Amino acid sequence: MDLLSLDHPRLKQNNFDLLRLLLAMTVCLVHAYELSGFEQLRGLAGMLSAQVAVQAFFVVSGFLIVMSYERSSSLTSYAGKRVRRIYPAYGAVILLCAISFVVVSRQPIQDYFSLVWLKYVVANLMFLNFWQPNLPGVFETNKLAAVNGALWTLKIEVMFYLAVPLFVYCFRKFPRLPLLILIYCLSVAYAELMTFAAVQTGVNFYERLGRQLPGQLSYFMAGAFLFYYLPFFERHVRYFVIAAVAVSLIHFQFALPLLQPFALAILVLFFGLFLYAGNFGKYGDFSYGVYILHFPVIQLLLNSGWFTGRPWYFLFSAASTTLIGSIFMWNVVEKRFLLRNSHYVGAVEPTEAKVPVKEPARL
User: Fold this and answer.
1) Half-sphere exposure of residue 358, counting CA atoms within 13 Å on the CB side?
2) Would you state the torsion angle of the CA atoms of residues 227, 233, 234, 239, taken in this order, to the nearest 10 degrees?
3) Is the dihedral of CA 7, 225, 289, 34 positive or negative?
4) What are phi and psi for residue 108, nearest 5 degrees?
5) Rg (CA), the chain
6) 178-187 burial, b if ≥16 CB within 10 A, otherwise e?
7) pTM for the whole thing?
8) Which residue from 1, 40, 170, 189 lies 20 to 30 Å from 296 (Cα-Cα)?
9) Which residue ranges does the record assign to the Acyltransferase domain (predicted)?
10) Contact partners, residue 353, CB within 8 Å, separation at least 6
11) Distances 54 to 22, 119, 194 between C-alpha atoms, Å
12) 134-148 as b/e, with b when 16 or more CB fall inside 10 Å?
């Protein structure tokens, strides 16, 4: 895509705000079942997939973050936008959990604020969530003791942010299409190698490695591909979508690892760029808050013991509390760190005023 194409109307009027919220709520609902173990909620895991939702997030990131870098006047400008968008709310959630969860800890207060507590704060503020996922005495009776097990994707997202300047430099220096295809294929090969190693050895560690970088890079690159070739995608969108639906249906029965990331990207970006549903961004961007808040909210509700034998009350409470918290997080923390020219600052209907191109969002 050349710079003139950055003014493409679909980049100004799209469904990305709504799409990200739906993906975040999908992850929330699936985790509500997985963490609670309520048999009545099993159908959620059958109808929805947190894994696919996360992959779709990476597709959207590939499209929007590459666009953000291409639109940025400098590396400093790009980095500033990324930090403003992801870190204030992230840091607020880490510190809020670390300080307030003393009230639900089974440890005395003097043992709670310990070296383990400090390790949790430092590790999680640095996106090293795997280093210390638990707080002293917190959620020990829950199915899983981790405070916020959804944050592993934020580490990958940050690594995407760091890698984009290098990727774009290479795309400008060398033929873009062969590089996109090469990186995509190498990512798929790595993920498949880790899956094979996990099956052969029975060690789940290899499967976890496959979910990290570069295993998720194929989804990001698929999103970047459709950004750079958006005019071509738009001209042939009908054929792209038909092929993507066919691949997705076959993938349910016979794994097509080489084609599935690109097929998912086509379907995700078709919804994001076509069938415009209105300027949802005028209400705010609550998806990030939903994503980083839902896990500790669910853990707190389960820890309370109030919902034993009442799965649907639990599900409603988890979803509504998370959504309310995300609205609060958006208005009190996230929005205050946005630049004045952000799409979300004073967002209006496109018919009332010229809407700036949306800044990319994070998970």
Assistant:
1) 30
2) -150
3) positive
4) -60, 155
5) 21
6) eebeebbeeb
7) 0.91
8) 40
9) 15-329
10) none
11) 11, 27, 19
12) ebbbbbeeeebebbb
Q: Which two tokens stand for residue 158?
A: 């940050």
Q: Which residue has the tokens 């698929």?
A: 222
Closest to 60 measured CA to CA, from 30, 90, 17: 17
Single-letter amino acid code for the residue at 117: W
**Is residue 14 within 8 Å of 276, Cβ to Cβ?**
yes
150 to 176, 216, 276: CA distances (angstroms): 33, 15, 30
Count of all residues that appear for the chain in the document: 363
Contact 28, 290 (CB under 8 A): yes
